[in-house]
Amino acid sequence: MRAAGNMGLVAFIMLAPQVMPRTTGKEPPVEHPTFYRTTHVDGHSIFYREAGPKDAPTLLLLHGLPSSSRMFEPLFARLSDHYHLVAPDYPGFGHSDWPDPKTLAYTFDHYAEIIGHFTEALGLEHYTLYMQDYGGPVGFRMALTHPERVQALIVQDAVAHDEGLGANWKPRRAFWADRASNEAALRTNLLSLATTRTRHVGSDPNVERYDPDLWTDEFAFLSQPGQADIQSDLFYDYRTNLAAYPQWQAWMARDAPAAPRHLGQARPVVRAVRAGGVPARRA
C-alpha cells in the first residue's frame, strides 16, 4: 500500500467522528463488541478500547483535546466487523492515570514514547494511524520513529503546517512566547465552556444536530482537579510541533503511505489530498 516518491496520499477527514449520520430503524447486532481494558505502560495505567478481529487490519485511533478514546465509539460500532480497532487514552485523559505534572512530563515527545510502548505491549506490529487533533503530533512522532509499522494515515483536524492555525491561535502563540504573563488568558481561550462547545459546533448554524452532552461532558472533565495544570503543560509543549512541521512535511512528501482505499470509498466525508497538502484550518 506504500506509495512511491511524492505521490503518497493521506486521507483528511473533515467531519468529527461524534457527528455521524443518524440511522432509522434497528441497528444490526454487532458481531465484535467493544472491550474496555487497561494495561500498564512505563509505570502508568493506560485505558483503551478494543474491538474487531485481531487478524483484521489494525486501526490505531489517537484522540485529541479534550476528548478521549470515547470519541471513537461511533466508529467502533460501524467498523468493528471489518477492522481491529484500538483506541488508547493518553495519560491525563479519560480513564488512564492522571499523574501530577510534577511527576510526569506532559509533552508530545513523551506521549509518542508511551503510546509507542503501548503498541508494543499489545503486540501491534503494523497499523493504520487515525490521528485526530492532538493525535497528529503524537502519531507523526510515532511514524517518524517507526515508519515500518505504519501502513496508512487518516488525518482529521490535525495540521502539519503553520498556515493551518487560524486567528484563534493568537493568544495561544502569546502564551508560548511568555507563559507567565499569558497563562490566565490561555486557560480561558483553550479550556472554557464556550471554547469546548465551539470545538464541536464550530460555525455550523444547525446547532440542533449536535448533542450538547458532547461538550458539557468534556467541560466537566476539564474542570476536574489538576486538569487545568495538565492541559496547560501539554499545550505549552505544543509549540514544539511547529518546529517539527518541516520534518513531517518532508516525510509525507517522501515516504507517507497511501490512504486506505476502502475507507476512502466508504464515506464521502473523506477526501484524499497529496501528502503535504493543506486541509481545513484548526479552531
Keywords:
single chain, 283 residues, alpha/beta, Rossmann fold, eight-stranded mixed sheet, 8 strands, disordered N terminus
How would you portray this structure in words?
With 283 residues, the protein is α/β, with parallel strands linked by helices. It has a domain at 9-15 and 40-166 and 242-274: Alpha/Beta hydrolase fold, catalytic domain (Rossmann fold, 3-Layer(aba) Sandwich). It is 37% helix and 17% strand. The chain contains 10 helices and 8 strands. Strand 4 (58-62), helix 1 and strand 5 (84-88) form a beta-alpha-beta unit. Helix 4 runs antiparallel to helix 5 (179-191) and helix 5 (179-191) crosses helix 6 (193-201). It is globular and about 50 Å long.
- Summarize the helix and strand pattern as letters: EEEEHEHEHEHHHHHHHE
How many E strands?
8
Number of helices: 10
Name of the CATH superfamily of the domain at 9-15 and 40-166 and 242-274: Alpha/Beta hydrolase fold, catalytic domain
Main sheet: strands, sense, barrel: 8 strands, mixed
What class do helices, strands and sheet pairing give? alpha/beta
The CATH architecture assignment of the domain at 9-15 and 40-166 and 242-274 turns out to be 3-Layer(aba) Sandwich
CATH hierarchy class name of the domain at 9-15 and 40-166 and 242-274: Alpha Beta
Report low-confidence residues grouped into runs of 5 or more.
1-9, 12-23, 261-282
Mean pLDDT: 84
Quote the CATH topology of the domain at 9-15 and 40-166 and 242-274.
Rossmann fold
Numbering strands along the chain, what is their spatial order in the largest sheet? 2-3-5-4-6-7-1-8
